[in-house]
Amino acid sequence: MEDYLAGLNDAQRAPVLQKDGPLIVIAGAGSGKTRVLTYRIAYLMHQGVDSFNILSLTFTNKAAREMKKRIADIVGPSEAKNLWMGTFHSIFAKILRFEADKLGYPSNFTIYDTQDSQRLISSVIKEMGLDKDIYKYKQVYSRISSYKNSLITVKAYFQDADLIEADAMAKRPRMGEIYQQYVERCFKAGAMDFDDLLLKTNELLNRFPEVLAKYQNRFRYILVDEYQDTNHSQYLIVKALSDKFQNICVVGDDAQSIYAFRGANINNILNFQKDYDNVQQYRLEQNYRSTKNIVEAANSIIDKNKTKLDKVVWTANDSGPKILVNRLLTDGDEGRFVASSIFENRMQHQLNNGQFAILYRTNAQSRAMEDALRKRDIPYRIYGGLSFYQRKEIKDVLSYLRLIINPKDEEALKRIINFPARGIGGTTVDKLVVAANHYDRSIFEVIENLDRINLKINSGTKTRLQNFMMMIKSFQVTNQTADAFVLAEEVAKKTGLLQELKKDGTPEGIARIENIEELLNGMRDFVEGQKELADQTGSLAEFLEDVALATDLDMDTGDDDRVALMTIHLAKGLEFPYVYIVGMEEDLFPSGMSMNTRAEIEEERRLFYVALTRAENQAYLTYTQSRYRWGKLVDAEPSRFIEEIDDQFLEYITPIDTYQYKPLIDIDVFGEVDKSKLRLKKPITGRPPLAHKPSEEQLRKLRKLRPVSNKSASTQKANLFDGDLIPGTMVEHMRFGKGKILQLEGVGQDKKAEINFENGGIKKLLLRFAKLKVL
Ligand code: ATP
Ligand code: MG
After folding, report:
1. What's the CA-to-centroid distance between 30 and ligand 1, angstroms?
2. 43-66 pLDDT, tens digit each
3. Residues 436-450: what's their mean pLDDT?
4. Could you say which residues bind ATP here (predicted)?
């Protein structure tokens, strides 16, 4: 047996060694499903399967890159290079590029991101004269997205009385027309949206048997990670491609299916056995990721779900510390607690920032966390916010590039036709749109033909439009010889984008210039990297495709050491030694919008299972007593999910602000017990150790966990927020007495201050040990 296979246990090795035929691995979190896929690919290659014949579909492109790296370690880098690995969207975008002409698209089609799609829908709604409060563009977008993911084309929509009726009932009788308009406009713009990448792939494989045969023969071995979260459209693609050879290996965990709201269909995993002949089923039971406490607590949670496959998950790891639960007064306190706890843990256990993650149910919760982390100088990175490529200045540059590649791209054109300002106003653009619709041409073509059509614009505007067109055309000429990086640099300079930002001169303006620089650097790396790959050339079109499909998880190179902040949805598949799950409150988690049916609650519970099982060593659950929701301060109630965890796995941190014990019942800020606020039937706070005075041992633990005493505001300031210290600040040191800060250097843990002490002279002290008191 090959050496590397020793890195698997027997249960994991079995699916790796089954080279042919359909197989499914259903197993709980952390049991090595992703590891099995990785080793399986290496094994296939060792068995002589050409890397060219293997297709591996992952949940993020980052996951694909990591897998590829590990495979390269086993089989060698040159062998691993040609593996096709990535998300459904990125893999099938590549295939669609090759085959685009069959579907009537240019091979340089644009990929509209969510923002582009929503903007287009918004303008369609406006052009149709519909009420934008009834036809909310975001809702319309997600509706259209769900049609597409269920393979309901415009034609199918109009043939489906139920759908038409449903939209009419929802007071949106013209949904179908919007859908139609939207689809036509995308097509005319030579653009596919995210959902099209799957829908059109299905169309391609259905309509063209020779294309299907080609890819069936190519992808003889198919592997899919996180199979429980595939939607109908993805399911059909996998089914079609694997139909001939049936060498299909899927891994997943029904308990981690968390994307039903986006059309993921858990039946795909449940029915796998029926879809193929002679399916071998494998189970993995040993969790390698987490402590016993975490694994067993997570089991006790998921046990509450009725709809589930029976699974065993156990671990040989240590019991580890209990899950720590803390109640805070407000989200500000919650943020401060998390930040100080990270700070403490980092010091006590010699950890890096990258070993911590803060997970939340909704993006809005990140703000309080960020504020607190910033105050403590703890570097962090937020995932899932506005991705780098969606920042305004970056999208502006990219829109120029998109237009150069595909002049029909309407959203790109509208974005930059008057940016930087060149005297082409909104009315002119509206006229162009009308003309484009009228002649059934793109806006760019209308501009090219201004002399031949009768558009009521003055001659000055006409010249400006023609200048704009000529500029784009000159870039197109450059594009024929220069690589993507050279072209982008020219665009940034010649369009006046950089000058515009330089003129700005504000710190934000400077940050934007830096972002553009970062984009250009990224492009240079891309061009160099791609040229090494067999089937890539480093063209601008390839770069734009990568960008359109990049998530900010992909941007993470892992180079810098930061605390990770993200929604639980995004955390799927990842692992961190320390995990803080914040906002554990009813209406927030479980979400108030997902409490109507058992199925919805069960999905929320699976989400909690995913969250908890990201933790390797220590998990924290925090909740607040009151929280701002929709602009109002409301009483919060602890999440039912805390209640559902078996008590033996939990330990409560008393949210008292001094070391002195205070009973943890609902004491309002004035110190009075307001019984009406005790909304819990069985008050969570009434459990040991909360109802009783903590033992000496518990108190000792509390002291360890509470980073600072709150007794004196000034000490707290000095100890907590050393970011507040500036040269000139008067401070007091236990041994050296009073002194004045001369200068500060270093960051975070290494921050030092040079202080002139009245008694001790000038000294340089490490702030984290100095325990200075601000005077
Ligand atoms: P999830 O359900 O969260 O996606 P998973 O089942 O895909 O989890 P992996 O991520 O593959 O699990 O594995 C979890 C962790 O355990 C990883 O750090 C992995 O390297 C480690 N691991 C898995 N199997 C073994 C093994 N046999 N020996 C050592 N480490 C292992
Ligand atoms: Mg995994």
Report:
1. 5
2. 999 999 999 999 999 988 888 988
3. 94
4. 27-34
